[in-house]
Amino acid sequence: MNAARRWWAAPRQALRASLLVFAAAAFLLPTEPAYAMVFYVLVLPTTAAASWRCRAGPSDPGVVLGCLLILWSACTLLWGHDDGHRSLRFAAGAACTLLFFAGSVQAWRNAAEWRRRLATVLIWAGAANAVLSVALGPFEPQNGDRLHGWGVTSHPILGASVMAAGYLAALTRVLGERPCRAANAAACAAMALFILLTESRGPLLAASVATLFLCAAGPWRWRALAFAAACTAAWSLLPQSFRHHQASVLVARGASHRFEIWHRTLQMVAAHPLLGNGLAANLDLPGMTFPHDLYLSVLFYSGAVGLLLFLGLAGAVTLRLWQGRRTPGPDWLWAVSLWINAALSGLTDLGQITKGPGPMWFIIWLPVVLALARPASSRPADGALAAAR
Q1: Does the first or last residue of the chain, that is N or C, have fewer Cβ atoms within 10 Å of its Cβ?
Q2: Is residue 21 exposed (0-12), middle (13-18) or buried (19+ Cβ within 10 Å)?
C-alpha cells in the first residue's frame, strides 16, 4: 500500500518541484526564451506524467471554466482577424497556458506546505530580481526614467504587477511570522521599491489596495499599524526631490490615451460582439495594438462568450476564497490579496490572457490556481497546517 502511494505521489512531487524551478527561473533568468525553455523542458513532461497517472478529467467547476475559457480563446483564431500571420504562435501559447493551468491546479491542490514553498521562491527570487534591477537601472539609459526589470519583469507595467506576487507573500510573513521577519521585511522593501520605481499607476494602486486588505483582514492589527508607521517614516526619509519627482510623474502622464483606446475597443467589439475579433487581432490605432484593460481585452478578443466564461471563472474563484474566510490563515490571506491585485491591475492594462510563458501566468493564472487549489470546505489537514505556519 505504501509503495502504491509513493508510486502515485511521485509525478505530482516532480511536477511541484519543476513548477518551483520555473517560478525561480522566470525571475532570475534575464530573457524570456531562457525561462520559457525551463517550462518546456521541465514542466511540460511532469505535467503530462501527473495527468497520465490521474486519468480523470477536471470536476471542479472553476477548473472546468478555466479550461473552457482557454480553449474558447484558442478557437477564436479560427475566425478572427490575424494581423501578421501570428495565429500559430497564439495557438501554441494557449496550449501552454492550458497545460500550465491544469498542471498547477494538480500540483498545489491540498498541498499547503508546497504552496508555502512557492511563496518562498517568489519572495527570494522576486527580491533578487528587484535588487539587481534597481542596481543596474542607472546603467540602462535606453529604458528611460522608468525602471525595467528582467525576465518576467522586463516590462515596467507588467513587471510591477508580477512583482506584487512576491511582495504580498513577503508582507504576509512580515505581519504574521516571527522567524526571519527582518529578512522578509528586507525582501518586501526591495520589491515595494521596484513597484514604485516602475512608475506604473495601475499596479501601484492594485498593490496598495491589496496591502490595505492584508493589514486590515489579518489577526495582526498592531503589527499592521507598526508597518504603516514604518512605511511613512521610510517615505519621509527619502530625498524630497525624489518624492516630488515620483508624485509629479504619476500625475503628469494623465490618462495615457486610455479613454481613446477603450472607445476604439468598444467600436471594434460592436463589429464582432458575440465571437470576438480573435486572439491575433490588433486595435487599429497607431502604436496602440491592444485594449489596455483586462475585461475589455477578453471581450475584444473572445467576444461575449469569452467574457461570460471569464466572469464565471472569476465568480468561482471569488466563491472559493469566500468559503475559506472561516479559517483566514496566511495561505488564505495571500491568495485573496493576489486576487485583489489581479482584479485591479486589469483595470488599466493587460491584454491576451492565454499567451505562452510570461507575465500573465503570474498576474492572472497564479491567483486563479491558488484559489482553486484550496479545498472547497476548509479541511483541517490543509487549512490548519497553513494557519500554523
Answers
A1: N
A2: middle
Q: Domain residues for 239? A: 19-46+61-388
Instruction: Give φ, ψ of 182 to 5 degrees.
Output: -65, -40
Q: In whole angstroms, what is the distance from residue 283 CA to residue 27 CA?
A: 30
Q: For residue 261, how far is the Cα from the chain centroid?
A: 24
For residue 197, give the C-alpha cell: 520605481
Q: Would 5 be classed as within a structural domain?
A: no
Cβ-based burial of 53 (10 A; exposed 0-12, middle 13-18, buried ≥19): middle
Could you report the per-residue pLDDT of 314-371, keeping only the tens digit for each?
A: 999 999 999 888 777 888 889 999 999 999 988 877 888 898 898 999 999 999 999 9
Domain presence at residue 302? yes
Number of structural domains the chain divides into: 1
Q: Is residue 51, in this structure, part of any structural domain at all?
A: no
CA 95 – CA 106 distance, rounded (Å): 17
In angstroms, rounded to a whole number, what is the distance separating the alpha carbons of residues 20 and 173?
A: 19
**Cell representation of residue 161:** 504587477
